Amino acid sequence: MTLSGNQYEIFAGPYEAIVTEQGASLRALLHDGRPLILSHDADEPVPAAAGQLLAPWPNRIDHGRYSFGGESHSLPINEGDLDNAIHGLVRFESWGAAEHERHRVRLTHRLLGHSGYPFRLDLTVEYTLDAAGGLTVRQSARNAGSRVAPYGHGAHPYLTLGRPLDECELLVTAGRYLEIDERAIPEPETREVAGTPYDFRAPRRIGETAINNPYTALDRDGDGRAWVRLRDGERSVALWAGEGHPWLEIYTRDEVMDETRRTGLGAEPMTCPPNSFATGIDLIALKPGEETSGMWGITAD
């Protein structure tokens, strides 16, 4: 048995993907045998949150502290150097496969009361491959407890073309972003991307630009999708975020000090920005019995 547990393979036309029992993570996604995301061995610890699902919050909570419903909470710190609680509570947990067909897999996890998060959620994720459209992911949460729960989710794939990001063109259809401080906590007010190094509304080469920022004010197409597209002139890979995800975190992996540094682009669909448990920005207050969901996907467009 591997470190990441059972490996669920799915196929459709030129696409194939592998989803793991641990965290219901997207470990691999290929098109005609070409990797579309950074992958890793099934028996290797997950590097830099690659392919993981982030719930019940994405990204960071400042010092792990927040207030909700008139009560103060303190989450365990798992980013010790920056003193933050990061990426939720379920990315290393075991998820069960409820359905597994050739082209799709659906996994579930019950999150019970946790230190700093005294709420109960039933979480579901479904990965579906289509020969023409690529990968579609649906993330859902239902409040299975007796009290209103704060909630947000995200996902953490790294898009790749197998070459340095410096040589690639990037498109991000977003008009505003959040600046971050030295502990990677964003300021509460958004800024216009116009006139900044973070403006990728028209495709342009990334070069040496370092990005680790949340984007919003997403410009969507007729299907309600906002896009992140990485292109090298010959090939491209794109992530789309559905309307349930009003935020995108873009990350160029500058802090990753190994051979994969700046070879994959973190393109992370999110329901809320980092630190939303503390700020309340786009935080979902999920009532008992209520369900929320969002969709995103990746294609070799």
UniProtKB/TrEMBL annotation:
State the PANTHER family in the record: ALDOSE-1-EPIMERASE, GALACTOSE MUTAROTASE
Report the record's Gene Ontology biological process terms. galactose catabolic process via UDP-galactose, Leloir pathway; glucose metabolic process
Q: Which Pfam families match?
A: Aldose_epim (PF01263)
Q: What's a single GO MF annotation on this record?
A: carbohydrate binding
UniProt protein name: Aldose 1-epimerase
TM segment ranges: none
Organism of this sequence: Actinoallomurus bryophytorum
